[in-house]
Amino acid sequence: MLASRLVHVIDDDDALRDSLRFLLTSAKFDVETYESATAFLAAMPQIKGGCIITDVRMPGLSGIELLRRLKTLSIDLPVIIMTGHGNVALAVDAMKVGAIEFIEKPFDDVVLLKAVRVALDRYGKEMKKDTEKAQVRERLHSLSQREREVLEGLLAGHPNKIIASDLKISPRTVEIYRAHVMTKMEADSLSELVRMSLAAGLFDKA
Fold it and tell me: CB-side exposure of 188: number of CA atoms within 13 Å?
């Protein structure tokens, strides 16, 4: 199953789970269903990604409690909350905890499918960011200690002369190290190097 097409449906209503499975598979999504939030959490070690559709009210863990548990576990899957009439306040609370959308039952199929596409698109973008971040960090590990020091000087906004003075080396040597940094980081410009560093969280350390 492709994570970019995978939808996890969590609801204690058998008929609703079957209905959602039929709707989603008809729209070419991959679907996994769970009768409770507890069952979903038990399956988490095998879950590869995707998005979640869950009812706000369920026996055992509610949709809101599931959201809180996912946050505690640092699991960042987009969550769509389903709510019955009169439970909108709960759905709003769920969005405050991290749900990206709520849909009132009975829902329109088109509305639900649109919400799923938005959720999976968001998941795909987050996965791309994570991949890019991992690539940048891998390139960082390839830098020598001196190259890393020059990079930190660049991120601090220092010109070559200041970096040279701080490191007690010549400006020409800084230029050489700077060129090495650009090559190893696969950056075409200083602005791209800054963007990469922001993505990897380096400014927190610079």
Answer: 0
Cis bond upstream, residue 59 (ω within 30): no
Tens digits of residue pLDDT in 102-111: 998 888 999 9
Pick one of 3.40.50.2300, 3.40.50.300, 3.40.50.620, 3.40.50.800 as the CATH number of 3-128.
Answer: 3.40.50.2300
CB-CB neighbours of 159 under 10 Å: 12
Sheet with 101-104, strands from edge to edge, namely 30-34, 6-10, 51-55, 79-83, 101-104
- Which residues does residue 7 pair with via DSSP β-bridges, in sequence order? 31, 51
Token pair belonging to 21: 């499975």
Q: Is pLDDT above 60 for 204? A: no
Query: What pTM was estimated for this model as a whole?
Result: 0.71
CA angle 153, 159, 160 (to 5 degrees): 80
Distance separating alpha carbons of residues 66 and 136, to the nearest angstrom? 33
